Amino acid sequence: VALGDGRSFVFWGNGPVVQTANGPVINPTGMKGRFVTSAGVPTGAEITVDTVTRMGVDIDDVNAVALANGGFVIGWAEQWDPDNGTRPVGFNDTFRFQVFGASGGKIGGEFVVQTETSGVSNAFKLVELANGGFAAYWQERAPGGVMETHVRTFSTYGGESGTETVLTSIANNGTDGLDEIYHLALMADGKVMGFG
């Protein structure tokens, strides 16, 4: 993610591959990241981005946005891969983010974005807002197979500034609507408009 002062924060997955009865599985030890200067030179120590350590968890939909205060936020999906065996009892797919200050220090803890984690969710994205905060949006299958696009807005430091809102709702037509990507447009007053 490119920052306002010319630096970038580069991040990557981390974890050894372990052989299990179901084949090779990545045993995650957390995403790592590091600042890079405008000349492409790494600077500072590696930073641990997340706290995922559960065997068999896939990290998907990783994305990041720079914030107006010089910091940044990184978001990701934690999803159970069926190829890794039976889903552990009590494990639900979740979308999370972590806010960082300009120096790389974490601001608060990891935040679970969606209020309902027992359904099928996909297409998680973060976007910076004109007011200095950011929004998270995603798609999920509601009861009855209806496909919904949800959005929540947050302040620069990760505090919720708006309730979870359903942007779109599409009746199940036999296709997987979770693959239909929606977009957010930023209005001059800082409000969010969603469209597909």
Topology:
Layout (H helix, E strand, L loop, with lengths): L7 E5 L4 E4 L2 E4 L5 E5 L5 E7 L8 E10 L5 E9 L13 E7 L5 E7 L8 E8 L5 E8 L5 E8 L10 E6 L12 E4 L5 E4 L1
Antiparallel strand pairs: 1-4, 2-3, 4-5, 6-7, 7-8, 8-9, 10-11, 11-12, 12-13, 14-15
Radius of gyration: 18 Å
How do the strands line up in the largest sheet? 6-7-8-9
Number of E strands: 15
Main sheet summary: 4 strands, antiparallel
Kindly state the mean pLDDT as a whole number?
Answer: 76
Contiguous helical run count: 0
Overall, the morphology is globular
Describe the protein's architecture and organization.
With 196 residues, this protein is mostly beta strands. It has no helices and 15 strands. Strand 8 and strand 9 form a beta hairpin. The protein is globular.
Provide a quick synopsis of the model.
This protein is mostly beta strands. The protein has strands at 8-12, 17-20, 23-26, 32-36, 42-48, 57-66, 72-80, 94-100, 106-112, 121-128, 134-141, 147-154, 165-170, 183-186, 192-195.
